[in-house]
Amino acid sequence: MEPRMMTGAEMVLQALVDQGVTDVFGYPGGAVLPIYDAIFQQEKIFHTLVRHEQGAGHAAEGYARSTGKVGVALVTSGPGATNMVTPLTDALLDSIPMVCITGQVATHLIGSDAFQECDTVGITRPCTKNNWLVKDVNDLSRILHEAFYVATHGRPGPVVVDIPKDIQFATGVYTPPDPRGHKTYQPQVKGDSAAIRAAIELIAGARRPIFYTGGGVINSGPEASKLLREFVRLTGHPITTTLMGLGSYPASDPQWLGMLGMHGTYEANNAMHDCDVMVAVGARFDDRITGRLNAFSPNSRKIQIDIDPSSINKNVRVDIPIIGDVKNVLADMLHVWKAEKPKTDKAALKQWWAQIDKWRSRNSLAYRNSRDVIMPQYAVERLYEATKGRETFITTEVGQHQMWAAQYFPFEEPNHWMTSGGLGTMGYGLPAAVGVQTAHPDALVIDIAGDASVLMTMQEMSTAVQHDLPIKIFILNNQHMGMVRQWQQLLHGNRLSHSYTEALPDFVKLAEAYGCVGFEVSKPGDLDGAIAEMIKVNRPVLFDCRVAALANCLPMIPSGKAHNEMLLPEATDAEIDSAIDDAGKVMV
Amino acid sequence: MNAQPTQSFVQPAKPPLERHTLSVVVDNEPGVLARVIGLFSGRGYNIDSLTVSETEHAAHVSRITIVTTGQATVIEQIKAQLSRMVPVHTVRDLTAEGGSLERELALVKVVGTGDQRNEALRLAQVFRADVIDANVDHFVFELTGKPAKVDQFIAIMGPLGLVEVCRTGIAAVSRGKRTD
Ligand SMILES: Cc1cc2nc3c(=O)[nH]c(=O)nc-3n(C[C@H](O)[C@H](O)[C@H](O)COP(=O)(O)OP(=O)(O)OC[C@H]3O[C@@H](n4cnc5c(N)ncnc54)[C@H](O)[C@@H]3O)c2cc1C
Ligand SMILES: Cc1ncc(C[n+]2csc(CCOP(=O)(O)OP(=O)(O)O)c2C)c(N)n1
Ligand SMILES: [Mg+2]
Q: A24: alpha, beta or left, given left = phi > 0 and alpha = psi -120 to 50?
């Protein structure tokens, strides 16, 4: 193709088009005005105007997670860039592909403490996979294409391209994306075949196997979920999923043991503890999963499939690492399994399943329902019942409600569950819902929220109204920072230091002030009707669901404990008060 | 429930610390060194010595030589973390490969008169250090060699009027004809 001359601002738009981008979330300011002017003069890229740059970042994350595409955010220099630090860090920890374009003061002003100048590449270096400051307009298109490549290849993550204002005005040569990719950054996607064979042999010989699968399966794309289902069903082995992996394996499938980890099920955690062969697929042995490290699955041989070599042996030593993309490695594993039709120990597996069924029968997600107050678990269950059979996407904030959503809202498909797992960012869910709804205008998009979290980014309701995004914000309002309160009960003698808001707003009035629709429900009997109405309304809704104030999120592995030392729902207050010892207190 | 006795978090026997020299070839671009150093400070890894220089102007690459100390598992993490960085081309563990060549240069200022001064000069000659500046009451020595030799020289000069030391940090290459 002929090299084309254009301004830096036009290059930004052209690069977005050439990268297949259709949506951008942003907020203008002095240092990005040329780019906003270019946006004004075109129709291929649709811009969603948020109300705070953090919202643009989380919206881009929700968009990315629900589509498998890159999320794009555009913000100005200085405060615009610093407001992006939280979503960039969030995306880094949760492996979300995101390209963030920031404006910068003109090149000759850099370093002079110019108006709205900050060292954006310096500030965002530790919270990006890579970042670039563009100093020559003729480098701009190459850097933008590289940014998209880096965000999406290998372990996905956020990148920042910082563009000084003079570069946006300058004219230079635009180069289209290079089909050869990248000169040095070439992550390994195909697994080593000897390791794959060794893994198959270990899996086939297992007497107490378990698949432990995570967000990497979602990152790898829908094909990976398909292959995972096929492989797991072929082996007949049990499978558990991390918070980030929910939906990669259907919750309705009897082989699925539910989520594992701190708030995972009794059967999943005990199976992890007692297994003899563990197959970690795109999961990073996070501390919410392992509990006390020296008691983590002590007698198992471990296989780990991961695209990022630094995820291997980071917290837990594995016996067979397989570096590669989940979809490629699973395809190869399936191939070997089908070709070799290995003999499995049917009797041992039967016994293992009998043991698992025993754990299952403890029914660790049981809770005591009430006729007078809405139990939060019940609210999530009713929400699920009402949305069955519809294309539904769930986002969450952070806290107890997030865990209840994970426990009581079953997912059948990948990319339908958006939550802040690694950073645990309160305020993620509402803007993330904005991003999801932008990508899926006809779907039902619900932010399962907490009363405290929702106040952190509620201004994005205004974005939803402006852009006709009929998101549903379903607040499990326990009038507390419930998760903090629970930990204060566990660790600090139930002294509830600043874990409740003295002055919660009237959420119904708040909704109306923003031009949304407000609901308030506090009786279990009114819940179903109100939820049905919420779904029917084709406008953004703020739903204030008043739930029991002091419910605890169980089951739970208290910090510092092992998988087989869980607190179950029938735990008494006394047991909860004394569940964590001094060594556990220092953990978060 | 919770019948098991609680154990301490601290693993009883800590694996021994190892010292490794890593040779890292990176894009010669602004911010790359900051990214590498940020990895070490951000994740709590040690840097015992660090040297950086452009090595191939045409190829636009620099070599960072890092000496670090940590348990074997930490060293393994450091290498994995470095290797996955976008501007990093290659990471070689010269210590693990064995038989690498390591040299360091030091400038050592010694102040004194009389016997002490003579002794300093005599020992400098034994170590094959050059005098690159001198007056009646001081010397500046230039010494090149293995880090251990430099350590030893500095220790010896301590009681002989040592007032200032500047070390370059370690430059290292592997033996033989292999390149990166
Ligand atoms: C209040 C709270 C409580 C929590 N409690 C729990 C809990 O009880 N249980 C729980 O599970 N989590 C819980 N979490 C979440 C937890 O903090 C972690 O975010 C989560 O466990 C990490 O999930 P993951 O291991 O699937 O890793 P992810 O963060 O999703 O990482 C994905 C892994 O896959 C790899 N990968 C990425 N792409 C690919 C690919 N294409 N091919 C191969 N590999 C790839 C990556 O390198 C990485 O190692 C909680 C979070 C909060 C905020
Ligand atoms: C930005 C941010 N600040 C603080 C925290 C610590 N934190 C975790 S959960 C939580 C309380 C959340 O309260 P709410 O949104 O009402 O949810 P609930 O636990 O009550 O369901 C807090 C303060 C956090 N995760 N994120
Ligand atoms: Mg709350």
A: beta
Question: Which of A188, A294, A311, A568 is best to mutate for the B interface (most B CBs within 10 A)?
Answer: A294
Chain A: residue nearest B11 by CA? A294
Nearest to A63 by CA among A23, A99, A90: A23
Other Cβ atoms within 10 Å of A186 Cβ, number = 10
Q: Which residues of B25-56 are buried (b: 16+ CB within 10 A; e: fewer)?
A: bbbbeebbbebbeebbeeeebeeebbbbeeee
A136 to chain B, any CB pair closer than 8 A? The answer is no
- When CB atoms are compared, the residue of A184, A187, A314 closest to B77 is A314
ipTM reported for the complex surpasses 0.95: no
Averaged pLDDT, groups of 10, chain A, 588 residues long: 88 98 98 98 98 98 98 98 98 98 98 97 98 98 98 98 98 94 93 98 98 98 98 98 98 98 97 98 96 93 98 97 98 98 96 98 96 98 97 98 98 98 98 99 98 98 98 98 96 94 93 98 98 98 97 92 89 84 79
> Token digits for A98?
């995101």
- pTM for the whole structure: 0.96
The amino acid occupying position B102 is E
Q: How far is CA A407 from the centre of its chain?
A: 15
Listed by number, the residues of chain B in 79-138 with a beta carbon closer than 8 Å to a beta carbon of chain A are 80-81, 83-89
Token duo for residue A116:
């709205």
DSSP one-letter code for A77: S
- Cβ contacts (< 8 Å) between B76 and chain A: which residues? 313
Q: Which two tokens stand for residue A115?
A: 């108006």
Q: DSSP letter string over A487-518?
A: HHHHHSTT--TT-S-TT---HHHHHHHHT-EE
Q: Whole-angstrom Cα distance, residue A178 to residue A176? A: 6
